[in-house]
Amino acid sequence: MVDESWNRIAPDVKLGRNTRLYAFVNLYGCEIGDECRIGTFVEIQKGVRIGNRVKISSHSFICEGVVVEDEVFIGHGVMFTNDRYPRATTENGVPQTEADWECIPTVVRRGASIGSNAAILCGVTIGEGAMVGAGSVVTRDVPPRAVVAGNPARILRYREPHASEL
């Protein structure tokens, strides 16, 4: 369900069936699966792939190079990055273009949850069923089912399997 008057959705966006978009989303060049919920003030950039039944809460930013698998939860204000050495200009002082930097991919595996205001640095994989605490800064891979928190995020414990996974 899309209300075009409140959203900026480029014609190259692929939206799955029964996906709900709330007001003021900005989507371009991305692919979003079935039965997703995309909150207010979310931006999803080109080349991003979002799986099925994903919830992305308001004010989140998902940049080029990110893959989000099925049944992932992304809390409010989660920020992804895709450049290890971000700069506004080249060494000559000329504004950078896409040719001047390398997009580093990030993957969020099935069933993972990312708490509000987490920052996910590029080049990491958040494992299946993992949980990232609110406000965490993820600088390295998170193992499957791990619960991590802090800056930098560190493993606190591992989650028990849910009854549906046994």
Shape: globular
Radius of gyration: 16 Å
- Summed up, the domain count is 1
Helix content: under 10%
CATH superfamily: Hexapeptide repeat proteins
Please report the total strand number as a whole number.
21
Mean pLDDT: 94
Strand neighbour order, sheet with most strands? 3-6-9-12-15-18-20-21
Give me the secondary-structure category.
mainly beta
Largest sheet: 8 strands, mixed
Helix and strand pattern: EEEEEEEEEEEEEEEEEEEEE
CATH class: Mainly Beta
Our count of helices gives: 0
**Can you tell me the CATH topology?**
UDP N-Acetylglucosamine Acyltransferase, domain 1
Oligomer: single chain
Give the low-confidence spans: none
SSE blueprint:
Blueprint: E1 8-9, E2 14-15, E3 20-21, E4 26-27, E5 31-32, E6 37-38, E7 43-44, E8 49-50, E9 55-56, E10 61-62, E11 66-68, E12 73-74, E13 79-80, E14 106-108, E15 113-114, E16 119-120, E17 125-126, E18 131-132, E19 137-138, E20 146-149, E21 154-158
Parallel strand pairs: 1-4, 2-5, 3-6, 4-7, 5-8, 6-9, 7-10, 8-11, 9-12, 11-14, 12-15, 13-16, 14-17, 15-18, 16-19, 18-20
Antiparallel strand pairs: 20-21
In short:
This protein has 166 residues and is mainly β.
Characteristics:
single chain, 166 residues, mainly beta, UDP N-Acetylglucosamine Acyltransferase, domain 1, eight-stranded mixed sheet, six-stranded parallel sheet, 0% helix, globular
